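Hi Prof. W.,

I finally got the Copper oxidase prediction working! I wasn't sure whether to trim anything, so I left the full sequence exactly as given:
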Amino acid sequence: MKKVWTVAAMSLLLAACNVDEEQETSTAHGGHAQHGTYYHNEQLALLPNEGTQPLTFPPLLAPVSEQGNEVEYALTAQQGKMTFVDGVETATYGYNGEFLGPVLRLKDGQQVTIHLTNELDEATTFHWHGLEVAGDATDGGPHAVIEPGETQTITFTVDQQAATLWYHPHPMGKTAAQVYKGLAGLLYIDDAKSEALQLPHDYGINDFPLVLQDRTFVDGQIDYEAVANTMSTLGDTIMINGVVNPAMTAANEKVRLRILNGSNAMTYYLRFTDDLPFSLIATDGGFVNEAATMTTLTLGAGERAEIVVDLHDFVGQRVELLNGDTPLLPIDVTATRQAMDYDTTFNEIVLDDTLRTMEVTKTVTMEGMTENFLLNGKTFDHERIDFRQKQGDTEIWEIENIINEEGAMAHPFHIHGTQFLVVSVDGEEPDAAWQGYKDTITVQPNQKVRIAVRFPEKGIYMFHCHILEHEDVGMMGQIEVY
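And this is what came out:
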């Protein structure tokens, strides 16, 4: 569906670079100039992908029942066991399986019922990241706890445009560990426009989901407690769709990659070998207006992107998706399909001068690097409402990442229950990667980002840093939409 906006009418944590010098900066924090050691964390050296395991794709979740426009699903958070490295079995979490979860595919206008069961030994929630639903148990924030052995049923009507979203747990203080152990899955929204567009759409054939995550294996084990770091838990091993050292095969045609950064904290700097160009066709919340050609793409934790890459000229060759210079995914190209032309115009997003000149009504400051991760100088209090906003109204929020005495680092900022538009970055027009609908943006140190925010539903929603360790220690606030 077309979204109507009415107004009264990059952190592997910016990987592998240290800037040790002090710099003086004026911030909104206290209104004074501050000195801070401005630097970015040096991540663990990523192990190169050896490409020894076939990449697999999560199954599409079959409905329990489907009648007309009504559809019913069942999703269970459960314990499992997997072998990732060295032939060693490790305990895991998964949705309807041993690790990660199936793709839940919904359509705009559908009436959806989902039965959510917790078979873990600890409480959890089911959060629908990017889905525009009521801010109650449906959204699955930290208030919507499901205890072990319990089932909760949610019902909602899908009312948003086609997009690649995801779902994951959101229990206060436990989100990072549960995602690290395997709780994450993709959620696709289709609509009439997406079904009519000429784009690669054959799941697992020319339309591929890629869930990017990192882990550090301790004697072959996924042991979050052994590697956890409040600053950011970063791994040395990349897995895609739960596969370590993956490789995939694709035909010599244009292929679509739906990429999720499902890591706890890592930012990915994506490109292909020889800087092969690709087209960005969608961001977090759906299609961009026109395909944007690029050679690099930065994805912070929680962000998604859909890209199309043309493999026509690479028959019999291997093309690699890279993170910086580190191989992530080798793609072996075969001559099995006929290349087709696809649409390059998709959406009608209007960011007019009215939005650009509206006054800021809500300001969020983010700070913290080694401890004391704060939003507006506070940690999360589930009894406190930080903001209020009227349903359907558009307001301008300004998000600022300030430098304090600890220093500074990039923070991915996420708002539940909405898809917003980026109005400006430090007063300038955003890059192409931020010109579509977004629900998560990675704000760099000393950067100010203005966004136009509209909530289509009522309720209480979280806004927070999507480095999961920061979220867990309280870098989170609440807005009541009335």
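Residues 1-42 have pLDDT under 50 and may be disordered. Does that look reasonable to you?

Thanks,
D.
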